[in-house]
Each structure stands twice: as C-alpha cells, then as structure tokens.
Amino acid sequence: MQLLLVEDDEMLSRALRTGLERDGYGVDVAADAPAARLALTDHGYAAVLLDLGLPGGSGLQVLRGVRDRYDTTPVLILTARDKLSDRIAGLDAGADDYLVKPFQPDELGARLRAVLRRAQGRVAPVLAVKAVRLDPARRSVTLRDEPVPLSVHEYRTLLALMERSGRVVTRHQLEEAVYGGDSTIESNTVAVYVHQLRRKLGDDLIVTVHGHGYRMGDAR
After folding, report:
1. Are 185 and 175 within 8 A, CB to CB?
2. With CB atoms 3.0 to 4.6 Å apart as the test, which of 7, 93, 147, 194 could cross-link to 13 if both were Cys?
3. Strand partners, 140
4. Which pTM was predicted?
C-alpha cells in the first residue's frame, strides 16, 4: 500500500517514513508543494499525509487541487497549526482527518488506518456510458465487463468526461481535472489521452465537438 508523505522538515520526514515503512507501507516523499502536485498527478496513492506549511505553496492549495479533479484519495493533514479555524479550513478543503504536531506514532497509525477503512467503505456511484463502466471506489474501468487497464492520466480524463456525460467538456476543463491547471503541460496533451482512450475503449465513445471540446454520451 503506497503512501505519499508531504513534509518539508527533513528530520521529521525521515522519522515518519521509517515508522510507516516498519508498519508495512510503501512511502514516497515530497518536500514542497510543486513536488507534491507532480507526484499526485503522476501516481495513484492509497493515502496522502500532508503538511500545510510547505515551500512553493500551501498544503491547502495542494489539497484543493486534488479535490478539484475528483480525486478521492484519503488525505490526513499533519500540521503544527492547532487553531480551530485552521482545522475547519483543512476539513472544508477536503481533508479526511487532521492531526496536530507533535503527535505520537501510534496515534498517526490509528488515524491512518481509520481514513483508509473509511475510504474502502465509501459508496460511490458506478458511472456507465454505452458498454463502458467506471467504478470510482475501485478505480476500475471495464468494457463489456472486461477490465481495461488505464494510466493515471487516462483514468482521470475518462472520469472527468463520464462525470459530465452528455455535456461538452472543454480542453481547459480536462486539463484542470487531470493536472490541476498546471500551465506547463503541452497543448496537445489532452488530445493524446483522448486518442488513447478511443484506442482502448472504441472510436465512437468520445465525440469531438469542434471548436468546443469533447463529449461522452448523448447530448443533453
């Protein structure tokens, strides 16, 4: 089970990683906000342990970017900010739990297990367009009941289109959903992922609406 630890304090990061790996988790580490955003767009994680005070941006910005692209990965905030207003802001931004530093390793382990259990028990509607079904809870995609392997970016592109089935989705909206608005991506990136989805799921599944964007399903 792979976790992302976002923490700029090197000593604390090393100690947390050692403890989590001892408990059987795999751990990737990001020391600033840009590295965290990159890791979260390139990989899928079982959960994220997120500090709020980060170089290059705030943890809340990272968290909002995750939720804005329909990513339901559990996020446990780890921070020294102990004001009620800070806790409320973190939870309102989409955090699953909030743990104030300093904390005991046993409490971190218990909180992490709790958010993972809740995530596994979430009931999310299965999305279906024609013969394609997408199960957000399992992050699985099937075509005529056969599993279809997708990359992280292909999956997020498909999810954004299926969430808006019957409506035109612009390239900018897809970029926001997949990359959180990263302005450094190539202009044809969305078209590449749409092409790959058509190749895997069928040429007629995603319709190009010239001058506007893409649509799945019948127009509303």
Report:
1. yes
2. 7
3. 135
4. 0.65
